[in-house]
User: What shape does this take?
Amino acid sequence: MTPITPYHYLVLSAALFAIGVLGVMVRRNIIILLMSIELMLNAVNINLAAFSYQLHNAAGQVFAIFVIAVAAAEAAVGLGIILGFYRNKETLNIDDMNIMRW
Amino acid sequence: MKLILFIPLLPAAGAALNGLIGVRWFGRRVSGFVACAVMALACGLSIGAFASLLALPPEARVHDIVLGHWIPAIPLETATGIVMFSASWTARIDPLAAIMLLVVTGVGFLIHVYATAYMKDEPRSGYARFFCYLNLFCFFMLVLVLAGNFLVMFVGWEGVGLCSYLLIGFWHEKHSAANAGKKAFLVNRIGDWGFLLGIFLVFFTFGTLDFREVALTVGTMSPETTGFGVLSAICILLFVGATGKSAQIPLHVWLPDAMEGPTPVSALIHAATMVTAGVYMVARSSALFVHAPLVMEIVAIVGALTALMAATIALVQTDIKRVLAYSTVSQLGYMFVAAGMGAFSAAVFHLVTHAFFKALLFLGTGAVIHAMAGEQDMLRMGGLRKHMPVTFVTMMLGALAMAGIPPLSGFFSKDEILYHAFLGNRILWGITTATTLLTAFYMFRLMSLTFYGKYRGPVYSAIASPAAAAQAAAHGVDHPHDARAHGEAHRPLHEVTHGGADADVPPDGSRRARGPQEGPAAITVALMALAVGVIVAGFMGVPQAIGGTNAIERFLAPSFGLGAFPVGGAGVGLSRGGSIALMLFSILVSAAGILTARHFYTRNPEVPRRLAARWPAAHTLLQNKYYLDELYLATIVRGTMAAARGSFSFDRRVVDAAVNAFGWGTQIAAWFSHMFDKHVVDGIVNLAGGTAGRGSFLVRRLQTGLIQNYALIIVLGLFAFLTVFLFAR
Assistant: This one.
């Protein structure tokens, strides 16, 4: 069994981030979009934690915790917006969310 | 003497009070009381001033009060170089002014008292307005009288003209009254034009407008006996002013029409005071006039012709007020004859006596008109002697005075004028004596038609027959004059608020049932007071020939002495016998006139009709007042209208066309400018905007509003960046 190196963490994080980006770009449900954003944030958290461990520097973990807190807030705000949108449009399809243009 | 300032200021205060407050808030009693009180006070002050003037020696009988400066010094060019022109509000009292003050305030006061009763039928605000105008008139008249220089006199002169206009047109709802006011104002304007030019020439010649300074300067000059120089020009211009105000030929036409005003106005303004302003002004400028003998002759001739012409017209008029109006014109003519003869004190003496007897006659006439419910046609009066004894007796005194029967006032003054005319010019004496005959005749024609004979007015029998009542009612509706005033009297509002004030006058119906009646106390008292004046006023000028002292002439002498020199005739009087013979002759003439009139109109009423039928042309000529009004209408009025129409069409065709052409030009220029703006300037602006708009149309396609598109772009951008960062370095 090979030891787990920073390299593995980076691959995992990149994979998660890519999945998140793809999710944001291809899915049509806004809630899925929000979840994909969470994925991207957590990919970043993994990176932060990994490098913190590697470099013996606690700042990375502290920063990760901050990211989680911000993500929580972002989820709350995002869900609020989705709720308002749903009340107005009775749909969660992102393609109907296009009134903010010229 | 300081108090003389209050003589004009009191009526001014009364006018302000009645005009500013009274019209809204004063009742009749208060309005009338205020107006009469200020006049009474002014009259008292005038008497005081007169008395204190008498207490002085004759040379010292002049007093100046400068109220304030009016026009500060302005350099003006005159005949003798640049002179600083300045004017101040100077009041000057001298014997001439003092006499006039007494007349204006005395007669004015009585007429105010009379008017409180006469104007009773006026609505309340009109009543206050009337007394405001009346007081204002007295103020301006007193300014005119007290003026110490030509300019202040001109202020009063214009002011009385204004008040005359306001009062003639007092019943302005009546078309004829409004027109008469306008006519008076316009005709007077012509005279004022002459007066003003005269004032300019006085200043240009003498460098001052002060009466005394002018008189002193002119005293050093020699009279223009041969040629027509600058002094003659001044006097002619001043005399033009006098003809306007004093209704002499050819500007007399306004005065008969002025009878459209209320009767107290006719008495005060158009008989006793204002119309004498011209005479007063000539007397004031006597120093100038005696230096222009040529003009003096013109003055006398115009006066004599006016006297004769007006007297002949008065022979055939049937409107009682118009007879008196023409008699006023005629009497003013007498005054100008006297002035033209250099007998200024005789002119002023006649002015004073005339003020008394003419005011009396007018007020009596007003009482008659009131009693006849507005009727002014003498042919519909008659027999009023029984109904109105006080009016009859007082008016008889006035008529006798005017006819020149001793010892009434008119006799002395008229005789004084005839005496001077006899000395000066026998032809003028002949004309004036003939006028005396005519005067006596038409006055007693008036008296006969009004007071003697049978009653010819509307039915008034107290029998309660429906026919009589109906006739009375019908007459009450359509009586031609003062109809408005009577209509007002019966407005319900008026009855409610002022029923108490009217309680002593029975309503129209019952007055009609009882026939013509004497007016209330204010009317009869004023008549009686004036009658006393008519009797007494003559005694201040009893000629020396019959043992008198001719006090007025000696009293007035200082006013006419400055710069004067003996006029022809003044030194060489007639012998005593000659004077008395002349006097007896004029009495005889007057008596003849009176008796003829009695014969014609009381005894044989068909004689005048036969005479009229025999000389229809003369009768029509007189009845139409020599067609002078028609002549003026055809020449001056039509001419003015034609000129106005001509200038109107010039205005429209030429001036308006030019204006319109400019308008069109501007419009065309504006159109071009508009086109340039629209297509060039706006084009550039629109081009810029349009370009931006169309450009943005392309770009805004990028803004889809879809989050995922943006996300895609971000990711692509990220890839591009990374690609460059990682591989292209």
Summary: Chain A touches chain B through 13 residues (CB under 8 Å). DSSP finds three helices and no strands in chain A.
